[in-house]
Amino acid sequence: MKKVLIVGAGPVGLIIGCYLNKYGIDFDIIDKNTHSTTWSKALSVSPATIKAFHGLALAGELTAQGKQVQSIYAWYKNRKFLHIDNRHLPTCYPFHVSIPQPRTEKILETALAEAGQLVKRGHQLVSWRREEGRYHVSLLDDARRACS
């Protein structure tokens, strides 16, 4: 039986895990950090990503916990250099959702936990190799013990 290893429990790793779970594919998610992040690396979630949440029946929760943003302006030295207007996009989500990354991750991690899938925190990928059509990985846990 093949098993997928997802390295990193940020929004991308978690959403991949949710989709693998949806389609019945066996997987593990590891993250070198012992706890989820407390700060954001992004300002908002894009319409395309909201649609990905929709496919997991999580778009409603995402939009309820965040703030819908139809237009985004960026200024530098009193000059507008960017304007994103989502109102006319041909999608059922013509907006970004402004939501802190920790909250986005919590939505995804909760969905995984409810499905019996837990993130293995404090585990780091050290190396991998392919041998006879199989992949072998070496991990370290948070106590720096070798795992495989």
TrEMBL record:
Domain called FAD-binding: residue spans: 3-141
InterPro entries: FAD-bd (IPR002938), FAD/NAD-bd_sf (IPR036188), RIFMO-like (IPR050641)
Origin superkingdom: Bacteria
UniProt GO molecular function: FAD binding; oxidoreductase activity, acting on paired donors, with incorporation or reduction of molecular oxygen, NAD(P)H as one donor, and incorporation of one atom of oxygen
Cofactor list: FAD
Pfam families, per the entry: FAD_binding_3 (PF01494)
PROSITE patterns cross-referenced by the UniProt entry: PROKAR_LIPOPROTEIN
Keywords, comma-separated and alphabetical: FAD, Flavoprotein
The protein's name in its UniProt record: FAD-binding protein
Organism: Klebsiella variicola
